[in-house]
UniProtKB/TrEMBL annotation:
CDD domains with a match to the protein in the record: crotonase-like (cd06558)
Subcellular location: Peroxisome
Gene Ontology BP annotations: fatty acid beta-oxidation
Species this chain originates from: Sphaeramia orbicularis (orbiculate cardinalfish)
Name under which the protein is recorded: Peroxisomal bifunctional enzyme
Stored InterPro entries: 3-OHacyl-CoA_DH_CS, 3-OHacyl-CoA_DH_NAD-bd, 3HC_DH_C, 6-PGluconate_DH-like_C_sf, ClpP/crotonase-like_dom_sf, Enoyl-CoA_hyd/isom_CS, Enoyl-CoA_hydra/iso, NAD(P)-bd_dom_sf
EC code(s) of this entry: 1.1.1.35, 4.2.1.17, 5.3.3.8
Protein family: In the N-terminal section; belongs to the enoyl-CoA hydratase/isomerase family. Belongs to the enoyl-CoA hydratase/isomerase family.
Summary of subunit composition and partner proteins: Monomer.
This protein's pathway: Lipid metabolism; fatty acid beta-oxidation
Length: 719
């Protein structure tokens, strides 16, 4: 809806009304068309101000409407009509003017913005381009290079920067609507000829081809397979090289290709998934809206290795006072320096003062006595963590929330070391903890809803995408990673190379293939876990039995590399070779290829041709299958939780929506059929056996992902 009122005698004030962000739904667009017409034809109205209700100008097109057939008046002619009026129209921007919201403002003759508001054309993050004239007007207003950067990144711009770039005409600290009303009155009678951006020529650029070549190269490199950034460059090129009308035609053509693309659907799904995970629920029925978090002002971190340092930084940057504890003096001194450095660099980037004073350091665990919440981040060893939890129980004040940053150990077992297991949750950060967006909040069977609510709220405060998950080996992310990596190892046994597997996964859109990733994180990490699980058997050297452990197919390849000291990047060799330890440039290693050949010969393994399709199906479908098991087990409440975890923590390409969304896109029946095939070929690989929830979903007609929860609920009610 949009409402027209007359204020200050002769100003037609149009207020967009569609909470929470005044998105341009069909009703709002209709409202704008009607009120503009009315204001223009009202002789008492001399000028028009457009604003949004509740302190937000407009969050853009209503993303919820994208999946459905278009109704209501289209945006492009609506904005043209505003630009063409003979009465000045001024946008009063509070909160945000994003996407179609900024395009609407660019159709106005002037723009006044509040100093705390921001503007931007983030369509590219939704797999789209600014197709209500944004790609044609913005370059005409601020020049091609600046517009290219804003449109291809989707970056939000502060009011101050918007003024500097020339996007807005004035910044105010006062009441934006009052200021804009006065401004509108002051420009009544002035010619509007020079205020219609569509009539501007694009400011000339000296070497246009070079500018676009560089931009295209940049987006191709950083977008890794995403089509919208490339299309955005093409649209801006149209602005720079074509008359406005033809540029608009091109904008629409390009938008049409994006609008129906799977990538746009995936990215829009991610937008809502990111927000849906904050509405968490537990199998007990506890929920986000009925569980009240505790206030946390003082936190503590135990253990200042890489993870502990990052967590301390994340907490301090969120404004909490932090006690950082490390028992070893030398490690404590190193950590102090490292944490201060990270805080200083972060503050410089964000243009704020570093929160150095918020962190205090101690080698004595007694220092955490007054903390409201403690995050244990010591070495991944159950006995050590148990000891820390026992100490914490003795030291902390009553009611302190005890959290563990374990990546796979049993949170409930740790909880049992304390007299208040309801106050224990997992807070699984991802390295580097002050940078990575994902936080898995792990609840055990005894964790209280209040403890979960507190950890989730703290995650939000730290700017994380926090996902509440149940307690099981590896939780959600690492549990799904296991079958994925296992398939990659098996593919090497069957004839693939690390390069082939990684190339297939990187072309799919992963930032790094499984072997490069494994070299980066260190092969010894998994080796230690496998040893603890009793899987590593140094005596089993040849024959089929050497590749069977605990009754199922097993590849000892990773163990054999570790026995050679090939721990990955830090050792200068792993699945690849590196110029020196710590170098990041992975090169194919003839030693490794020779080693694989000898290994296959020793075990009598035939080599066959493996193509990218098989790599993707084996690795990804095994991972997805485990995702369905996780849903079936109630470890994740819905597919959005799994997808958010993979997109924000595991480098899954956002434009593919996450593993569960991807399964829906390729077709659940297809995934099931391929898993059945692979399981038939490899009956000794339980991870390839299709999960019963997947069968159930296919049997119920492969409903859209939004309906999976209904099927899952039915499955759970029958258990
Ligand atoms: C056939 C081919 C031709 C087709 C031609 C079509 C022509 C189309 C022309 C123009 C197209 C324009 C494209 C766009 O405008 S796309 C939208 C661009 N806008 C955005 O990307 C902004 C998205 N929103 C945000 O960034 C934030 O929400 C923000 C506005 C900054 C507010 O942030 P915050 O205060 O943190 O609040 P939340 O993010 O939690 O959001 C609150 C709730 O509002 C919902 N929301 C937000 N934006 C939208 C939107 N644009 N549409 C619908 N809903 C939106 C959000 O989901 C939250 O809801 P909930 O609490 O239920 O999760």
């Amino acid at each position: 809806m949009a409402q027209l009122t007359r204020v200050s005698g002769s100003v037609g004030l149009i207020t967009l009304q569609n909470p929470p962000v005044n998105a341009l739904s069909a009703a709002v667009r209709q409202g704008i068309v009607d009120t503009v017409k009315k204001a223009v034809s009202d002789p008492l109205v001399k000028c028009v101000v457009i604003c949004g209700q509740n302190g937000v100008f407009c969050g853009g097109a209503d993303i919820r409407e994208f999946g459905a057939p278009m109704t209501g008046p289209p945006l492009v002619p609506m904005i043209h009509a505003i630009e063409a009026t003979n009465k000045p129209v001024v946008a009063a921007i509070e909160g945000a003017a994003l996407g179609g919201g900024l395009e609407l403002a660019l159709g106005c003759h002037y723009r006044i913005i509040h100093s705390k508001a921001r503007v931007g054309l983030p369509e590219v993050t939704l797999g789209l381009l600014p197709a209500a004239g944004g790609s044609q007007r913005l370059p005409r207003l601020i020049g091609v290079p600046a517009a290219l950067e804003l449109i291809t990144t989707g970056r939000h711009v502060s009011a101050a920067e918007a003024l500097k770039l020339g996007i807005v005409d004035q910044v105010t600290d006062d009441n934006t609507v009052d200021t804009t009303v006065k401004f509108a009155l002051s420009v009544v009678g002035r010619s509007l000829e020079s205020r219609r951006i569509s009539t501007f020529p694009c400011p000339p650029v000296s070497d246009l081809d070079a500018v676009f070549d560089v931009a295209m190269q940049r987006v191709r490199q950083s977008a890794r397979g995403a089509i919208a950034p490339v299309t955005c460059v093409q649209a801006v090129r149209a602005a720079a090289t074509l008359p406005y009308t033809q540029g608009m035609k091109r904008e629409q053509e390009l938008m049409a290709t994006l609008f129906t693309s799977g990538q746009a659907r995936a990215l829009q799904y991610c937008f809502f998934a990111q927000r849906a995970v904050s509405r968490w629920s537990m199998p007990s029925g506890a929920r986000w809206d009925t569980s009240k978090p505790r206030p946390i002002s003082k936190a503590a971190v135990i253990g200042l290795g890489t993870m502990g340092r990052g967590i301390a930084v994340a907490l301090a940057q969120a404004g909490l006072s932090v006690v950082a504890v490390e028992t070893q003096e030398k490690q404590l001194m190193d950590a102090k320096q490292a944490v201060s450095g990270m805080l200083e660099r972060g503050a410089k980037r964000r243009g704020v003062a570093p929160a150095l004073g918020l962190v205090s350091y101690s080698h004595n665990i007694q220092a955490v006595a007054e903390a409201d919440l403690v995050i244990e981040a010591v070495f991944e060893d159950m006995d050590l963590k148990k000891k820390v939890f026992q100490q914490l129980s003795a030291v902390c004040k009553p009611g302190t929330l005890l959290c563990t940053n374990t990546s796979s150990l049993d949170v409930d077992h740790l909880a049992s070391q304390t007299p208040s297991p309801e106050l224990v949750v997992g807070m699984h950060f991802f390295a580097p903890a002050h940078v990575m967006k994902l936080l898995e909040v792990v609840y055990g069977p005894r964790s209280s809803p209040q403890a979960v609510a507190t950890a989730m709220q703290l995650g939000k405060k730290m700017g994380k995408v926090s996902v509440a998950v149940g307690n099981c080996r590896g939780f959600v992310g690492n549990r799904m990673l296991k079958p994925y990596m296992e398939q990659a190892f098996f593919l090497l046994e069957e004839g693939a190379t690390p390069e082939l597997v990684d190339q297939a996964l990187e072309e799919f859109g992963f930032a790094m293939g499984v072997f490069r990733m494994s070299d980066l994180s260190g092969l010894d990490v998994g080796w230690r876990v496998r040893k603890a699980d009793g899987l590593v058997d140094p005596d089993a050297t040849s024959g089929r039995s050497a590749r069977i452990r605990q009754g199922r197919r097993y590849s000892p390849l990773g163990d054999l590399l570790c026995e050679q000291g090939r721990f990955g990047q830090k050792a200068g060799r792993g699945w690849y070779q590196y110029d020196k330890p710590g170098s990041r440039v992975a090169k194919p290693d003839p030693w490794l290829h020779n080693f694989l050949e000898q290994y296959r010969a020793r075990h009598g393994l035939g080599v066959r041709h493996i193509d990218h399709q098989e790599v993707l199906e084996r690795c990804l479908y095994a991972l997805i299958n485990e995702g369905f098991r996780i849903l079936e087990d109630g470890i994740a409440a819905g597919p959005e939780d799994i997808d958010a975890i993979y997109v924000f923590g595991y480098g899954w390409p956002r434009y593919r929506g996450g593993p569960m969304f991807y399964a829906g896109m390729v077709g659940l029946a297809n995934v099931l059929e391929r898993l059945e095939h692979f399981h038939q070929v490899h009956p000794d690989v339980p991870y390839l056996q299709p999960c019963s929830l997947l069968r159930r979903l296919v049997a119920s007609g492969s409903p859209p992902i939004q309906k999976w929860r209904e099927v899952i609920r039915k499955v759970h009610s029958q258990l």
